[in-house]
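Give me C-alpha cells for this 415-residue protein.
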Amino acid sequence: MDAFFVSVELRRRPDLVGQPVVVGGTGRRGVVAAASYEARRFGVHSAMPSVVAMRRCPDAVFLPGDHALYSEVSAQVRDIFERYTPLVEPLSLDEAFLDVTGSIGLFGSAPEIAGRIRADVAAELALACSVGVAPNKFLAKLASVEAKPVATPAGVEPGPGVVVVEAGEEQEFLRPLPVQRLWGVGPVTLDKLHRIGVRRVADLGAVDEAVLATALGHSQARHLLALARGIDDRPVEPEREAKSIGHEETFESNKHDVSELRRELVRLSDAVAQRLRRAGVGARTLTLKLRFDSGFQTITRSVTCAEPTDLAPEIIAILVPLLETIDPSPGVRLLGVSGSNLGPVIRQLTLDDAASPAPNWLAATEALDEIRRRFGASAIGPASALEDGRLRIVRSGEQQWGPSASRTRAEGEDE
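Here you go.
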C-alpha cells in the first residue's frame, strides 16, 4: 500500500490532499508513523522523531493515528487479495506476498492479476498500492518498491504501479541497485562492504568469495551472494502462527511511581488480552518490559503459567507483583506487556467455581468484547484508563492481517 496510514486519513480529510501530512505524535517523544509523499520531499520518513520532522517540514500537518480504522481497512484490502488467491502471506497491515501460480488460468498472467488488484483497491477503497511481480518473494519485494511513487525536492513523481521481473532477467534487475537494498545489509554490514569497494549489487559479483567471507563471515557472505543472484526459495506461507502478542508504549514524560505504572499496566494488559482472544489463543508466558530513561536500560520479567490465559484480570494479577519488585524512581520511559508460548485456552467450570462468589471474569469479558465489537474500541475500558474524562485506549502495534516478525523499514519505504 502507498503511504497507507496517511492515505486512509486523507479519505476523510480530502482538504489535506496534496499537503505534507504526517501521522504520528506531536509530543517531545512523538514518532512519525507515516508520512505523505509531499512530506517525504523534505526528508520526513517513518520512525523519525516528530521533533525532527517538524524542523524539516514546519508546514507539515500532524494527525493522530487511528489503528482500529487502519486494521479495518487492511482487512478489506486482504478480502480483495483473496479473490485472486488463497495463498496470501501478510507482513503487516499494509503489505503481503501473494502466490498466484495457481490463479493464472482463471485471471490471466501475473502482471494482469497485479493490474486487476490495483484497479479493485482503487475503485472500492479509494487507495493506491504498488505491486512487484517476480519469480520469488525477495525479487517481488524489491520490484514493489521500484513501482512506488518517488518524492524528490522538485516534487512527487508517480511510479509505474507494477514492476515485473521476468525469470531470466533477475541479474539485469538487481545489478544496478544499491547493495543496501539486499535483505540483511544494515549500517554495520554496509560499512564493511564499502570498505572492500562494494556499493552496488553488481560489485558483489566482482569480489572474491573468500574476501567477502573474511569481511562478513561465511554465513552472511553466502546469504548475500545468493540474493545478488536472485535466489530465494522460500514459499509464500499463508498460515504463520504468532510467536507472541504484545503492546508497549513510550510515555510523554517519565513515570517514577509504581501506582502510575500500575494504571498503565492495566490498560496494556487489557489490550493484549483482547488481541489474544481475537487471535483465538491464550498465553502461558507473560512478560513485563520496562525501559529506564537513564542510559536506556531495559529490563524484562517473565512468568510461565500452568495453562494459557486470555483474560485481562488474570494477566494483571500475574504481572502486578512483578512490577512491584522494580524500583521506578530513576524514571521509566517505556512499559510493555506481552504474551508468548501461545496455545488454545481450555476452560472447565468446576462445582467450586460455580459456587464461588468471585467475579465471573469470563462472562464479563464476553460482554466487554461484544460492546467493543458493536460500538468501537473506545466505548469501554478499564476505569484506571480514564484521563480528563476520556478513555485512553491502546492504539499502537495492532496487526489485523496476522502476526509477523518486527521489521525495520529502510528510509523511503512505505508504512
